[in-house]
Specification:
2 domains, alpha+beta, about 160 residues, three-stranded antiparallel beta sheet, Translation Initiation Factor IF3, four-stranded mixed beta sheet
C-alpha cells in the first residue's frame, strides 16, 4: 500500500473535490471485474472517486483497504459512501528521435502492452513539417493563418 504525507493528501483532496465517481460498488461487493475497472481508471486518471452502495461503514472501510492493498494505491479520503484513491500514473508512450538526414527524421514510437498484448515499437520516417501525435499517428503541420491586412501588406 502506498503512503502519503498529510500535505500530499490535502492537495489530492483539493483536486478530487471536483471529480465525479467513476466506479460504483453495489451489493455484490468487491468482485474481480470491479477491481479490474478500478485498475483501468487508476492507470488512466491517477486520482479517482468510488461510490460504495451500502449502509455498513465497517464494510466500506474494509473495501477501501482491500482496494489499496491489492492495487498498490493510497487511500486519500473516505467521506460517507465516497472513497478517494490515488496511484501515480504509469508511463504510457515514449518517443525517441533519431538524427535528421536530408530533412527527414526517424521517430520510434513505443506503446506498452498489457496482458496478452505485446509491447509495440514502430519506426516512422517523417518530414520537417510533420509531427507524431500521442497516439502514434503522423500529421502535417497546419498552415498558420494570416489576417487579410497582413496579406495585403506583404504583397
Amino acid at each position: 500500500m502506498l503512503k502519503l504525507t498529510s500535505s500530499q493528501r490535502s492537495a489530492l483532496k483539493a483536486k478530487a473535490h471536483s471529480l465525479n465517481p467513476v466506479v460504483m460498488i453495489g451489493d455484490a461487493g468487491l468482485t474481480d471485474a470491479v477491481l479490474k475497472e478500478i485498475d483501468v481508471n487508476l492507470n488512466a486518471h491517477g486520482l479517482i472517486k468510488i461510490r460504495v452502495f451500502g449502509d455498513d461503514r465497517m464494510n466500506r472501510i474494509e473495501i477501501l483497504q482491500q482496494i489499496c492493498s491489492q492495487l498498490d494505491a493510497a487511500p486519500v479520503q473516505h467521506i460517507g459512501k465516497l472513497l478517494v484513491i490515488y496511484r501515480p500514473k504509469k508511463e504510457t508512450e515514449k518517443t525517441v528521435q533519431i538524427p535528421a538526414k536530408n530533412g527527414l527524421r526517424t521517430v520510434v514510437t513505443f506503446k506498452p502492452g498489457s496482458g496478452a498484448i505485446r509491447n509495440r515499437a514502430k519506426k516512422v520516417t517523417i518530414k520537417g513539417n510533420e509531427r507524431v501525435t500521442q497516439g502514434g499517428l503522423v500529421k502535417r503541420r497546419k498552415t498558420r493563418q494570416v489576417s487579410a491586412k497582413k496579406k495585403a501588406l506583404a504583397s
